[in-house]
Amino acid sequence: MAKRIDVSGLSAFYGAHKAIDDISMTVEPRSVTAFIGPSGCGKSTFLRTLNRMHEVTPGGRVEGKVLLDDENLYGPGVDPVSVRRTVGMVFQRPNPFPTMSIYENVAAGLRLNGTRVRKSELDAVVEKSLQGANLWKEVKDRLDKPGAGLSGGQQQRLCIARAIAVEPQVLLMDEPCSALDPISTLAIEDLIGELKERFTIVIVTHNMQQAARVSDRTAFFNLAGVGQPGRLVEIDETARIFSNPSVQATEDYISGRFG
Amino acid sequence: MSGVTMDRTPVAGSGAPQPSYSLRQPRLPRWTPAALAAAAVAAGTGIGLGAGLSSHMQWGLIAALLYVAAMYVLATRVEGRRQAKDRLATSLVWVCFVLAVVPLVSLVWETISRGVKVLDVDFLTHSMGGVLTIRPGGGVYHAIIGTLEQVGIATAIAAPLGLLTAIYLVEYGRGRLAKAVTFFVDVMTGIPSIVAGLFILSFWIIMLDNGYSGFAGSMALAILMVPVVVRSTEEMLKLVPNELREASLALGVPKWRTILKVVLPTAIGGIATGVMLAVARIAGETAPIVLLVFGSQVINNNPFDGAQSSLPYYIYEQWAAGNEASYDRAWAAALVLIAFVMILNLVARGIARWKAPQSSR
């Protein structure tokens, strides 16, 4: 199920502007890796290069290699569509499809791909995914109601259910809790703890405590300077990053001395 | 008064509230605008009668001016300058609203009152075949058939073309080609209908030597319809949040399926409204019909061969005939045309409401 990600020499551009510069790291399977760093340092851009969503942005361009268990995502002949089926994504703002019911939202990944699935199988997938996202109990009696009618936290868990319904290998989360209240955040964090048994999870967060709570490894990103591309400062065990980081800038950032 | 109070009792809060710091201010009663409007209308009528002005329009304008002026003066006296400016803006907006509604209401009223005279089932189900224009009788059936067929074919051509163009511009279009397409769509928006008619006339009828037909008219109508459909669809597609596209793409859905299954369903209400409004817009076109469809007195169900009629053409023709019976028929046909457009608008609104994304529980 879960795969290892090996990034080497990765740079991403928006047109002529270089957003991130020469990043290399390894993301272990069945673990949670957190990206922290000041706004605009390229965490989200880097996350989006991991499932080729970066090139959806007009002018988006990538150089370097991302190996998913020895297969280069940016190799010749690789279809971005199949990459995205393997590497799922949850966005900052909950974005359920407004025209679809809760059921249809979860089934969207299968249905929209045109996969022919029997109704009973689809029912099973929807139930399993909603249970996986800890949402089943709350919505099982109103699966045909619009997904946009749920609360913000429920919508975000719906989006997670939608993402895991297609059985990806890796789950990318771009600040999944930044639009949620503390209780919903707690629910999602618990969920992340459960999901890491099955998936490789990468999460971008601005909340240092959250990174410390949920992640096994933490990567700190920073800007080299104003107008310069973002770069990876260091990546290490979360406990080490938060207690005894090897770079002074990381300690400054975590203790709130800048950024 | 406040100054006096201040002098006597310097301690704040013990005297009468100072006007400049008070939150309460004198307000005109709620019925003031309505009462003033009634008074202004009465005054306008009085002045109009007294001065012997024949045009009711002039009475109305006098009343409107009196109302705006009186409201401003009264509000300045009672409520203060800031409130008076607010009242002035409000009354100007109301006056403009009334000025805009008057012609609309009078048009609808005029059409209905004159149109119902000969409008009955017979009128809707008979053509003008064998009816002398100076005699009463006859009907509009052939024109309704013509309008439905011509507008239907024009929509069948223009709606897919416009829809696909808009999808290209919003979802795929980058660089020069997209800019060129946008530019030419803008240019097409400004094409006068007679020019579209002349183009099809020279191209289809003179150069390719085809006869007059409803289809020729449809092509000219389609030329007029395409830019309207492109513009409205483009706006609707732009309103679809980018997050939805990304959510779909991130699920591993190819772009074309994302557009088909996520973007279009989200925008379909607005797109349908836009197409319906474009249909309503071309249903009243006369110039290309006169040039290309030629007009006819009899029923011709085949839009691809031979002259047809259409509602706007029928109105024009009956009015040009210049006698009592044909005037009545022209008004009745005008009423039918307005009703047709109105029904299309209502259908469009119904679709928009029915298909709108359900957001709240």
UniProtKB/TrEMBL annotation, chain A:
Annotated Gene Ontology cellular component terms: membrane
GO biological process terms, semicolon-separated: phosphate ion transmembrane transport
Pfam families xref list: ABC_tran
Domain ABC transporter: start-end pairs: 5-248
PROSITE patterns assigned: ABC_TRANSPORTER_1, ABC_TRANSPORTER_2
Record GO terms (molecular function): ATP binding; ATP hydrolysis activity; phosphate transmembrane transporter activity
Key words of the record: ATP-binding, Nucleotide-binding, Translocase, Transport
NCBIfam families the UniProt entry points to: 3a0107s01c2 (TIGR00972)
Protein name, as recorded: Phosphate ABC transporter ATP-binding protein
Lineage: Bacteria, Bacillati, Actinomycetota, Actinomycetes, Kitasatosporales
UniProtKB/TrEMBL annotation, chain B:
Swiss-Prot/TrEMBL keywords: Cell membrane, Membrane, Phosphate transport, Transmembrane, Transmembrane helix, Transport
Gene Ontology CC: plasma membrane
One example of a Gene Ontology biological process annotation: phosphate ion transmembrane transport
Keyword Membrane assigned: yes
Domain ABC transmembrane type-1 positions: 144-348
UniProt-listed InterPro entries: MetI-like, MetI-like_sf, Phosphate_PstA, Phosphate_transprt_permease
SUPFAM superfamilies: MetI-like
Pfam families reported for this sequence: BPD_transp_1
Subcellular location: Cell membrane
Top-rank taxon, per record: Bacteria
Coarse class of the protein's main subcellular location: membrane
Keyword Oxidoreductase: no
Disordered: annotated segments: 1-24
Positions of transmembrane segments: 34-53, 59-76, 88-109, 151-170, 182-206, 212-230, 262-283, 330-352
GO-annotated molecular function: phosphate transmembrane transporter activity
Membrane topology term: Multi-pass membrane protein
Family listed: Belongs to the binding-protein-dependent transport system permease family. CysTW subfamily.
NCBIfam families reported in the protein's UniProt record: 3a0107s02c
Protein's job: Part of the binding-protein-dependent transport system for phosphate; probably responsible for the translocation of the substrate across the membrane.
Protein name stated in the entry: Phosphate transport system permease protein PstA
Organism this protein belongs to: Streptomyces morookaense
Native organism taxonomy: Bacteria, Bacillati, Actinomycetota, Actinomycetes, Kitasatosporales
Record gene name: pstA
